[in-house]
Structures are given as C-alpha cells and as structure tokens.
Amino acid sequence: MSTIADVASRAGVSKATASRALSGRGYVSEKTRRRVMDAADALAYVAHSSATSLATGRTQTVGLVMPPIDRWFFAELLAGVQESLLALDYDLSLYGVPEGSQTRERLFETVLPGRRFDGIIAVGIQPSARELERLHRTGRPLVSVGPYSEGSSAVSIDDTAAARIATEHLIELGHADIAFVGGSTDTGELSYGDEQRLDGYHGALRAAGLDAHARVVGAAPTMPGGYTAAAGLLGDRRNRPTAIVGVCDEAAIGAIIAARRLGIAVPTELSVVGIDDHEHADMFALTTIGQSPREQGHEAVRLLTRRMDEPEAPLERVSAPSSLVVRSSTAPPR
User: What is the mean pLDDT of residues 17-42?
Assistant: First the structure.
C-alpha cells in the first residue's frame, strides 16, 4: 500500500508539501498541488486519518451534543450534520443524552473536556445548567443550534415568533378559546426552546386581549404525549377549546388523533396547528410553521468549519427560515 512518502517522492516534493496539497490546508501552488494529486492517483494513495491528524494537528473529528434522537427534529438535524461532515471527510462523535440526567452531567464534566475534537456542535443547550459556558471552557471552536447561543456562532429559528404566528393564525380565523399543548407546566423542567414557544403563545393572546382564555396542558413533545393531553382536554364537552396550538407537530398530530377518537371533527369542530413541518404533517393535513432541521444541520457545519479555519472571525447568528404552512386542520370556528 502506498504511503505519503511514496507520493512525495513521485511528485518530487517533501512529505509536508504533499500532505498540504492533499489535505487542502496550507499554501501550495496550483501547479505543485496538481502534480501531487496526479502522483496520488497513479499510486492509488488513500490518506489515513491518523496520518492526516499528525500532519495537520487536527483529528478530523467533530463532537455533536444533542438530546436523544427519538424525535424527528433531532434525527433530521443529525442527518444534515452527518451529510456535511462526510462531504468534508470529517468523522462524527455523537452524544445523544437526556437533559437533566447524571449521564449528561458526566458528559459535560469529564467526557467532553477529555476528548480531542476539532470542534463541537451543541444542540438544544439548556442555559439553566450553564452547559454552553462549560463547552466554551474546553477551548474548542463551538457552534450551537437552538435559541440559546451565548457567546457562540449559532443557527436557529425564532421559537417565540413561530408560536406567536401559529396562535395569531387561529385568532385571525376567529378563535378565542385556544389551548397550548405540550412542554412541561413546571418551568423548572421546561426546555428553553419550548419556553420560548410558550411565551409566543401567551404574547399573541395578550396582544388580542384573550389572555384570560389561556390554557396550557403539559405533555411530552411527542405524538403519545399530545394524544394523552388532548384527550383529557377535549373530554369535557362544555369546556373544550375550539383550537389547539401544539408545541411541535408531533404533539399537534397526537391532538388530531385524540379528537378523531372522540368523534370531534377537525377542523369544523376543532382547529389544530403545530410547529416544525414534520414529515407526517402533510399526511395529517396539519397547518404548521415550517422549518428544515436538515438544512440547519448543514448550516451548523458551515459555521463550525469557519470557526475552525478562522478562530478570530466574528461570531455569526443565522436565523433559519420559517413560515406558516396552511393546510386543512384549521378553519373558522362554528
């Protein structure tokens, strides 16, 4: 099997020059780069990641910290990050751990500081545990995905605006009794992003003079969680709302399924709107606030590679696009 020394000898350059030409890092004239590439092709040379690390001082590995990927958003985001890293010949070390767990505490306290990464992408970081600040102390380039990004480059949607727009859509249709389903009613357990969405819901009701009608039903941000919460909410015929805002599409879809089980027609008797534009949203004709977590993953890698190449560059905050997607789960109240 050919080595970097073989490539350098065939191209008539030093090993260091051959390494720079093949890695794309450091200056090499275009003529020399071409000669080295031709030599590598002729020898069927494939760079070993360990050798590349020794030559460049980089591990070619990025750490990704995020909640467990059993939710669609995080699975899609992971797919986007992985696609971009593979295109750059980077490896990925994934740490998908639950918020508030002992495992997560150990991850931030001892595991991440002891690992060698070229950079870290942090998803859904909780400010209450000062997790972002602890990642800063590792001294590695850092990018966050989500609404909390103190001192780091970041990509996110405006979660407050997303829930406000979803709620305003229902208000504009004529709904006054609008409930919010999903997230915890205990602010100590509420994730930062869900807290922002809850604020957007309350803000829209307050602006319309409807804050006295606010109702929040805590539930896991999943289809079963939304189903259970909505089933309890809709079971009382005299006090049921005319519309529901789901903290995410999964909770909103769960609410639609609960309504159907109870014989409540959507949207003639109950309007439902979600946030995310989940892969199943169109199947359930769900009106939602659309976003693309896969594209956010691509953008996070772009931001991180810039931080790795230009550590002194200004921090960047990218606002991912989101917009109202109207389908047939919402209509004026009867």
Answer: 82
Which two three-digit tokens encode residue 82? 């992985």
Quick check: 62 and 118 in contact, CB under 8 A?
yes
Length of the chain: 334
Beta strand pairing status for 323-325 and 287-290?
antiparallel
Q: CA angle, 229 as apex, 164 and 70 as ends, to 5°?
A: 80
Of residues 255, 253, 277, the one with CA closest to residue 325 = 277
Please report the pLDDT score of residue 18 as a whole number: 83
Q: How much is the pLDDT for 185? A: 58
Which are the contacts of 53, defined by CB distance < 8 A and separation ≥ 6? 59, 60
Let me know how many helices (H) and strands (E) the chain has, helices first.
13, 12
Please provide the DSSP assignment of 235-283 as one string. Answer: S-TTT--SEEEESSHHHHHHHHHHHHHTT--TTTT-EEEEEE--TTTTT
User: Which residue type, as a one-letter code, is found at position 286?
Assistant: L
Q: How far is CA 188 from the centre of its chain?
A: 22
What number is the average pLDDT over the span 254-282? 97
The secondary structure element, H or E, covering residue 94 is strand 91-96
